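Researcher: Go.
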Amino acid sequence: MRTIYIRRKETLNFLPKEVRAGAKISIGSIYVGRQPLRGVEGEESHKLLAQILDVPPGHEKWPKEEKNFWSSMSVKIPFEGKELNIAVDEDGNPENVMDYLTYKWCLKHRQVAESEEVMKADGQKRFYIYDPQKDLLKRNVEVKLKKEADKEFIKISADMDKMRRLLRVLSKGARPETLTDMEIENQLYSIKSEKPAMFLKMSTDKNLDVRAELEEMIELSVLRTIGNQIIYADETIGENITDAIVYFNNKKNSGQVNAMRAQLKEIK
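Model: Structure:
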């Protein structure tokens, strides 16, 4: 069994909770052009609706019966949500055909969102699909990400110079050269805890040194920015930080890069 739930938006009004809970709210059939919204079509429709309709595919009444099925589709969504079994076997056959058809139909319905977050962001959505398995997988991905970030934090803790470069990249204006080792560690730990994906991405970036150097040059006005562009004197060395890294790594630009580094050293 593979269970998902169709849940409805909680409406906050003056009615008591028990009254709101008992309210009958349904997802009704809608039309797309001149045809009712169909959850499945073609061969899949023939395969599944043949188990529900009184006539087989190919029968002269099939088109009418199929259209009637979808045009009369309606699903009541109780306060606690509508439970649907969407499990299929190894051949793709649903354990519960009607539940599966309802799910496929809801996936396409304009009033149904794929998640609660999407529903909250779209005022036209009144229902959403809650998938416990999907939620479990999502949380597991987050756990694994945090574990990897923890490992990387422990690894780089032995290299305080790298910690300082990393903080410069992750926290604009942090000025790591003015902070103690303990302050550096504390700030990076907070960033790692709040933004593990960003921490992991930057801490494993092969261009971290160059990226940090560019950030310092911008901070001390060796380089200037206009929008995303990075400029040295009157020359644009990159449309963005990524382009500037490519510029720094290109040996053809070593003379200009060395001039920037000499200027940075003089300012420091």
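Model: The radius of gyration is 29 Å.
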